[in-house]
Write a structure and sequence with these properties.
Cellulose biosynthesis protein BcsR, elongated
Length: about 60
């Protein structure tokens, strides 16, 4: 979201969107180390996918 400001990196297309909230915060706050934070969104998406496609998960050898 650029909020109408065309001079931001996102508006110019210079920057990719962050992979998750912590990565986005780390871009603005140098003291934040994204490697030290647990990505809960990724874990929940993984568990949801296992429930949604159990046969595929079993064929791929993925565990809960």
């Amino acid at each position: 979201m650029t909020n109408g400001n065309r001079n931001t990196p996102a508006a110019r297309g210079d920057a990719l969107p962050p992979a998750h909230d912590i990565a986005g915060l780390a871009r603005h706050v140098r003291e934040i180390d994204p490697a030290r934070y647990l990505d809960e969104q990724a874990r929940l998406a993984y568990r949801t996918a296992l429930k949604r496609w159990p046969v595929l998960a079993k064929l791929m050898g993925l565990a809960d």
